[in-house]
UniProtKB/TrEMBL annotation:
This is Hydroxymethylglutaryl-CoA synthase. (3S)-3-hydroxy-3-methylglutaryl-CoA binds at D29, Y143, K242, N276. The active site is at E79, C111, H233. SUPFAM superfamilies: Thiolase-like. Residues 176-247, 254-348 form the Hydroxymethylglutaryl-coenzyme A synthase C-terminal domain. It comes from Marinobacterium lacunae. Residues 2-165 form the Hydroxymethylglutaryl-coenzyme A synthase N-terminal domain. GO terms for biological process: acetyl-CoA metabolic process. GO terms for molecular function: hydroxymethylglutaryl-CoA synthase activity. NCBIfam families: HMG-CoA-S_prok. Its EC number is 2.3.3.10. InterPro entries: HMG_CoA_synt_C_dom (IPR013746), HMG_CoA_synth_N (IPR013528), HMG_CoA_synthase_prok (IPR011554), Thiolase-like (IPR016039).
């Protein structure tokens, strides 16, 4: 029996800010963003959207298909936590109408935790192959204005049903891990934006890739040449290009630049126009590969590099299943992305500065999201989520 990703769906806000507009305001060359970091647009959450509503939007089409009783566990990965105690997934559990016997927990380790959730889900499915595990990863990437990180913001959520004999990608059991206590990117509880040592974070990312790959090579019989495409954690798409060049060099693989590029380019299309979605980003990259790559990927092995600052990294692999293309949500995703609305600089600042009330008073939120669920109010320190 194989175990892995049976179905995958993602969601991002209906509003985006174009990095050309940011470059204009900053009097910077837009090519710095479009080429230098490889990003074009960044998703901006509406005031009545957060990690809960985005996750429910991503997951609802999957639950509509399998029914709420098929899911034994909901694992919610995020680094945009809304509560120090209650798991955000409990709200999602209600919004999706999941069975009361379904367990729910939230996982955190920067952008890595969705991969921990995926591996735990595979183990749970191996124990009880009749049920599925729902993994959701949902984040809003926020940095201070007028910092180098500002251009690498974004928002998005991904939902994956993990099951036995999966229809999309089986996941191999061998993994390579690397953990080191470093301060490259972090967000203390009292801050709404992340702190980051940008250049250092890119160096640690590459070091972790080398270490996780070496650990993977000790665990797995696979060699570099067995892997056809590579999905990397995507803080910005140029990071994946640098990482892949690094991996090719480590393996002394004789490849032309176009061949190196072809192994990752199809994974980048969605993230270039959504921006960083932290925990969700590598899996939105997988959606991009499965849904936009012109080649038939059936039978191909994919390498995955998951990185969470602080830091924990993991390299693992999986195989695309025959017939995968019949089980994708490509049309819905492409419609959602093409119908988004561009924000002016002032509108972007309004969304960026939207207050996160902490006073325990009554706060009704305007209905702005075009998603299926919204945060309608915050009242007496309680968040009220409703379907639209
Ligand atoms: N045309 C083309 N390219 C240009 C250009 C122009 N006019 N102007 C500049 N560039 C290029 C630069 O040469 C540079 O390319 P190289 O890296 O290949 O040298 C690139 O654009 C970026 O320019 P800078 O070096 O000036 O970088 P910056 O100071 O603007 O900051 C950054 C870049 C450090 C990534 C910053 O965006 C940042 O801090 N981002 C947040 C942190 C981050 O994403 N880190 C990634 C690793 S950590 C992680 O992965 C976890 C996570 O999700 C956060």
């Amino acid at each position: 029996m194989s175990v892995g990703i049976d179905e995958i769906s993602f969601y991002t806000s209906s509003y985006y800010f174009d990095l050309r507009t940011l470059a204009e305001v900053q009097n910077t060359d837009p090519e710095k963003y479009y080429v230098g970091i490889g990003q074009e647009k960044m998703g901006m959450a509406a005031p009545d959207e957060d990690v809960v509503t985005m996750a429910a939007n991503a997951a609802s089409p999957l639950i509509e298909r399998v029914g709420p009783d098929a899911v034994s566990t909901l694992l919610f990965a995020t680094e945009t936590g809304i509560d120090q105690s209650k798991a955000a997934g409990v709200y999602v559990h209600r919004l999706l109408g999941l069975n009361a016997n379904c367990r729910v927990v939230e996982l955190k380790q920067a952008c890595y935790s969705a991969t921990a959730a995926l591996q735990m889900a595979c183990a749970l499915v191996a124990r009880d192959p009749r049920r599925k595990v729902l993994v959701v990863a949902s984040d809003i990437a926020r940095y201070d204005l007028n910092t180098p990180g500002e251009a690498t913001q974004g928002c998005g959520a991904v939902a994956m049903l993990i099951g036995a004999n999966p229809r999309l990608v089986s996941i191999d059991p061998e993994v390579g891990n690397y953990t080191e206590d470093v301060m490259d990117f972090w967000r203390p509880n009292y801050r709404s934006t992340a702190l980051v040592d940008g250049k250092y974070s890119t160096k640690i990312y590459l070091k972790s890739l080398k270490k996780a790959w070496e650990s993977f090579r000790e665990a797995s019989p696979l060699v570099f040449e067995d892997l056809r495409h590579f999905c990397y954690h995507l803080p910005f798409s140029r990071m994946a290009q640098k990482a892949h060049q690094h991996l090719v060099k480590l393996n002394k693989a004789a490849m032309a630049p176009e061949q190196i590029e072809a192994q990752i380019e199809p994974t980048l299309s969605y993230n270039r126009i959504i921006g960083n979605s932290y925990t969700a980003s590598m899996y939105i990259g997988l959606c991009s590969l499965l849904e936009t790559c012109r080649e038939n990927l059936a039978g191909q092995r994919i390498g995955f590099f998951s990185y969470g600052s602080g830091c924990v990294a993991e390299f693992f692999s999986g195989t695309v299943q025959a017939g995968y293309e019949q089980h994708l949500h490509a049309d819905r995703h492409s419609k959602m992305l093409s119908e988004r609305e561009a924000l002016s600089y002032d509108e972007y600042l309004n969304l960026y500065r939207h207050p996160d009330p902490r006073d325990g008073g009554e706060h009704e939120l305007p209905h702005i999201t075009r998603g299926r669920f919204r945060l309608a109010a915050i009242s007496h320190h309680k968040r009220e989520y409703i379907p639209c």
